[in-house]
Amino acid sequence: MNPKQREIISNSFIYSNFNYCPLVWHFSPKSASRKIEKIHERCLRMKLKNYTGTYKEILNLADVNMDTRRLRLLLVQVFKTIHDENPHYMKEIFQVSQGTTRNRNNLKVHSHITANYGTKSLKTLAPQIWNSLPEHIKASKSLSCFKNFLKNWEGLECKCNLCSFN
């Protein structure tokens, strides 16, 4: 297969599954996340015809990991909600903070008692990630501009149950 054919196959059969409802995938257990990353690794090896390099080396050549991809998609949903491009009920999940002008683009972070249904939930995790973005990205005027900024955003140390950091 030529590179274009390999790209079409990976987008059609692999990424289409993970791009459908990425927020559901994001809150799945660590074991599922490892499986997703393993499938992503195999897909990249096929796409790049690189069967000897480490996963990290292959990611540097081609792509970002699936966790960062899901975080980017999550941030797009937050941006669309703030700019009234999502259904109105999403405003209940992502609420703009009534803070100082320095933090005018921050979201209200809800506090919860339990971890699984509180601190590791969409309502808590998304505002934390959004608030950690640089101000110039949060202040983007259009969705296309925001997505362009996110292409260069490497992700962050997420606090969800999938990620390996504290």
Q: In terms of topology, how is this protein built?
A:
Elements: H1 3-19, H2 22-26, H3 30-48, H4 55-62, H5 66-82, H6 90-93, H7 115-119, H8 122-132, H9 135-138, H10 143-151
Helix pairs in contact: 1-3, 3-4, 5-8, 5-10
Description of the structure:
The protein has 10 helices and no strands. The protein is mainly α. It has 2 domains: 3-67, no CATH class; 72-151, no CATH class. The chain is globular and about 55 Å long.
In short:
The protein is 60% helix and 0% strand. It has 166 residues and is mainly α.
Short key terms for the protein model shown above:
166 residues; mainly alpha; 10 helices; globular; disordered C terminus
What fraction strand? under 5%
Distance between the termini: 42 Å
Mean pLDDT, all residues: 81
Q: Whole-number radius of gyration?
A: 17 Å
Segments where pLDDT lies below 50 for 5+ residues?
A: 158-166
Outline type: globular
Q: Secondary-structure element order, as H and E?
A: HHHHHHHHHH
How many E strands? Answer: 0
Number of domains: 2
User: What is the share of helical residues?
Assistant: 55-70%
Largest sheet descriptor:
none
Number of helical segments with 4 or more residues: 10
* Structural class label: mainly alpha
